[in-house]
Amino acid sequence: MIIVMKPHAAENSIKAIADYIQNSGLHAHLSRGTEVTIIGVVGDKSRLSTENLISFKDVDRIVPVTEPYKLANKKFHPEPSRVRVGNTVIGPDTLTVMAGPCAVEGEEQLLGVARAVKAAGATILRGGAYKPRTSPYSFQGLEEEGLKYMQLAGKETGLATVCEVVSHESLEAAVKYVDMIQIGARNMQNFFLLKEAGRSGVPVLLKRGLSATIEEWLNAAEYIISEGNPNVVLCERGIRTFETATRNTLDISAVPVLKERTHLPVIVDPSHASGSYKYVIPLAKAAVACGADGLMVEVHNDPAHALSDGPQSLTFEKFDSMMGQLSPFAKLESRSFPQGEKTE
């Protein structure tokens, strides 16, 4: 449930209710607006008396919350959240672009990509050091060596960095080198990993599972937030359907649905959704027009010889062109690129 306070409710009234909730063995989550404060109740609400709550001074009304996710729920936190990753803030006013190779292949390769994507307007470098691949014989990543290259590229270019983690060991290593950790589609419901990501305190990019519903996805985010880490960004990367023309099916409708249900930022990965560089730019435009807070795009210096996901990677030239083409779409949504617009 949520307790909506009257406009400009006294601080001692808010504290009295929060103390009552805590003393009842539940958690009080405060969301302060310009005029109205909302108190979310997390836990077994049967322990509370609604009649007692409504009798507290400055209480306006009590609203039940039927969704199983609470902390990720927009009812608990009406204002959209902003998540800081390095010097970049992902949120409602900007269009944040994460770009880089699917897999880190070496120091010079990564530095070259980092310089190129920064020049085009990206503010976060993505790169895979741990690669959970469908085939056990495919390239599995450079692991901690790759993380060191990510840190080096971030320091040289000023870009924030994000890398996927796949286990407790990889998470422990990654938090020493990168600014944001990614929980991939295959681990979206790895609840032990989600809890560890929450306890890490590092911003988390949570990708949607291969066949996950939006509610399952938001419950996964709840695991992270409930461990004390509110800095979660959701990433729609396509879901598995009967269609085989693309690698996955981009659920573009997930963006407005999420905007209605959660305060968390939402970005879109058109590279994994399509599996082909030919479709990345039009899907990126659709995502921005639909209200996404950002994009994650795979960029490689030589896609034809990439060790992972070359067919869906953009060349430097195509990425630069995409950034220019996105400018009018960003303007329509009243967004700006964090480091200024890229124009053709």
Compact description:
The protein is an alpha/beta fold and 344 residues long. It has helices at residues 11-23, 50-54, 107-120, 144-157, 168-174, 191-200, 214-226, 254-261, 270-274, 277-289, 316-332; strands at 2-5, 27-32, 37-42, 59-63, 83-85, 88-90, 96-100, 124-126, 160-165, 180-183, 204-207, 232-236, 266-268, 294-298.
Descriptive notes:
This protein is α/β, with parallel strands linked by helices and 344 residues long. The protein folds into two domains: 2-63, Alpha-Beta Plaits (2-Layer Sandwich), CATH 3.30.70.1140; 83-332, Aldolase class I (TIM Barrel), CATH 3.20.20.70. Helices cover 35% and strands 18% of the residues. The chain is built from eleven helices and 14 strands. The chain has an eight-stranded parallel β-barrel with strand order 7-8-9-10-11-12-13-14, surrounded by seven helices. Strands 2-3-1-4 form a four-stranded antiparallel β-sheet. It is elongated and about 70 Å long.
